[in-house]
Each structure stands twice: as C-alpha cells, then as structure tokens.
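Protocol step 4 of 5: obtain the predicted structure for the target chain.
Materials: sequence only (see below). No template structures provided, no constraints applied. The aim of this step is simply to have a reference model before the mutagenesis design in step 5. Sequence pasted as it appears in the construct record:
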Amino acid sequence: MKFRCHCLDDRKITGSLHSTNLVLPEGGVKVIQGTPKTYALKAESGGTMTSYFCGDCGSTLYRKSSGIPGVTIMKVGCIDDLNALEKFKPDTELYVKHRVAWLPEIAGAAQLQGMM
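Step 4 output (structure tokens):
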C-alpha cells in the first residue's frame, strides 16, 4: 500500500501538509548505516506510533503503529533513488478530514476520513 497521510502528527514530523508513505512487511526496511533513534506517542487513532529517525540529521525514516502490527511504514522522502519514487504514487489518502482545502485529492486514490 502507498498512501498520503494528512494526520496532524505527520504534519508536525514532516514540517509539511502531509506525508507520503509506503507500507512494507516488518523487516522490509534495512538501515545501511547507523542505528535509528526512536520516539513513541499516542496517535490520533488511540494506538501507539513509534517513529524511527536518524540520530544525526533528525529525518524520520519509518514508523510502526500498534494499530497495524507486522508492517513498517516507510517515509518515501528518505529514498535516495529518485527514479524509484515515480513508482510510489499513493493509492490511498488517510485523514482527509485534515487535508487543507486548497490541496486537491489524488485522482483515483481511496479517500479515508481516518486510519486504514
């Protein structure tokens, strides 16, 4: 699954209006250098969301949610291969109730009011 999230938490961690994410099976992300630091909080859904981020630059690499066990939610902005990013057009938008009015929906993407 590829999704764009408009939740208030993602706005804060990205410094933007949304985040673009790729859902992978747990173990599907490999950190090739360093050990990510973590920060956990109560998500809007009520579960626990843990962010894994670079201890040097602070960029969020991926997240894990207690509400959707067994998967890793990768932030596609941290992928170095720009050509690969073309493959990650979101097929779903989450928390569209928080999307700003002037940002259009992604044509053809499922529009969900909250979490999956």
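Step 4 remarks: Residues 2 and 88 are 6 Å apart (CA to CA). The first strand starts at residue 2 and ends at 5.
Proceed to step 5.
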